[in-house]
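The instructor's notes for this session suggest beginning with a concrete chain rather than abstract definitions. Hand out the sequence below and ask the class to guess, before any prediction is shown, which regions might be ordered.
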Amino acid sequence: MAKVLKSSRRFRRKVHREDTLLSNYELNHAVREIMQHVRLDRSWDIPYLAGYSLDGKTVYIDRHLPRTYRSHGRRVRVDPFLILHESVEKALVDHLRLHYQHAHQIALRAERASVKAAGLSWRPYNEFMMKFVKTAGHEKLSRVPDELHLKPYWDERDIALVHRMQKAMPGNCGVGRRGKK
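After discussion, reveal the predicted structure:
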């Protein structure tokens, strides 16, 4: 028990010492914290690579997106960066009622900061993602989760895509609550 308290105090001191400065340590820690509160589901077709559930407790990542990419000879997991992006976006849309595109821009910048805090270059990561964004945008949708929040797709006015997504949902129950919430 003493070890846990010592460790906790050491962390608290470090937080207070660096809480007003840019800190890769703090950002990486925040990402780990977010990942503990969100469930990841990679078993669906998700246009534009990732999305979130209506309640925000699940982040969906397209089942075709590789889990890693190669950067300077090492394999890097992409899930933490996408989970951060989707979690920030969902919080801004729900709690501050931002338009999706504004929330997306802020979330994208948080994602980029997280990539850099992990010691990676943004450009190769972004190029990797953009290859799959283009592919995911045109793929045939066979499985889309009923609980996927469709607000981002509606806000982008991609009505044809929304209808394709709804047809691929197991419940296939129309727009309803998923649409404009």
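Then share the key points. The CA atoms of residues 146 and 169 lie 5 Å apart. Strands lie at 39-44, 50-52, 58-62, 68-71, 74-77.
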